[in-house]
Amino acid sequence: MSSFAVSGITSSNVPEVAATVRTAPVQAQAAASSMPEDTVKLSAAAQAQQMHHSGQSVSSIASSLGTSVSAVDSYLGITVAIPVATASVAHAAPAAATASAATSKAAKVAVKG
């Protein structure tokens, strides 16, 4: 059982004070339930991090947030390697240089001859 001290009670207002004491917790609960909830709006980057932590794929996160996969990669700090040129393209230039060198040698020999 709890006790409390109330000042200003007179014999004429005892029933009124007693009624206030009995209904005060109910009034406090009603006031608390009518107050708006505290909410926090997370940025797209924070949402992406939470979704990734929960196991969602980058493409599903991008779809949910309405952003691109590259934006989600950026939010998560994922870097994508730049593709390296294929071997056939890399060797094409030296072969062309060799052919042009052979052509210029043939031209020099023809001029001398």
Task: Name the features.
mainly alpha; 65% helix; rod-shaped; single chain; 0% strand; 113 residues
**Overall spatial form:** rod-shaped
Portion of residues within helices: 55-70%
Derived structural class: mainly alpha
- Spell the H/E element sequence: HHHHH
- Radius of gyration from the alpha-carbon trace, in angstroms: 40 Å
Quantity of strands, as a count: 0
What is the average per-residue confidence, as pLDDT, rounded to a whole number? 74
Percentage beta strand: under 5%
State the helix count: 5
The residue ranges in which pLDDT falls below 50 over 5 or more consecutive positions are none
Largest sheet: none
How far is it from the N-terminal to the C-terminal residue, by CA? 124 Å
Task: Describe this structure in a few short sentences.
The protein has 113 residues and is mainly alpha-helical.
Description:
This protein has helices spanning 14-34, 44-53, 58-65, 69-76, 87-112. It starts with 13 loop residues before the first helix and ends with a helix. The mean pLDDT is 74. Helix content is 65%, strand content 0%. By secondary structure, it is mainly alpha-helical.
Could you give the topology of this structure?
Elements: H1 14-34, H2 44-53, H3 58-65, H4 69-76, H5 87-112
Helix pairs in contact: 2-3, 3-4
